[in-house]
Prior knowledge:
The chain has about 80 residues and is mainly β. The protein contains 1 helix and 6 strands; from the N terminus they run βαβββββ. It has one helix at about 10-15, and strands at about 5-10, 25-30, 30-35, 40, 45-50, 65-75.
Amino acid sequence: xxxxxxIDGWQMxxxxxxxxxxxxEEVHCRYExxxxxxxxxxxxxxxxxxxxxxxxxxxxxxGVGFVGYLVTAEPVVG
Length: 78
């Protein structure tokens, strides 16, 4: 059984352990500030970038901000 795990970028920056396992994609998206002054992700603006591993510090991409990682993993049996 394969599972997909979401890891916020700040979790890796704060206290995560770098890893290189399974398929890892950085997720970036565009934000717009709403009337309440808070920036919200713009639907449909997500960009997925395949990477070798995760350390919480993604390369900046024009027009979008780094959000986190999607990691595909398989459970270890035994």
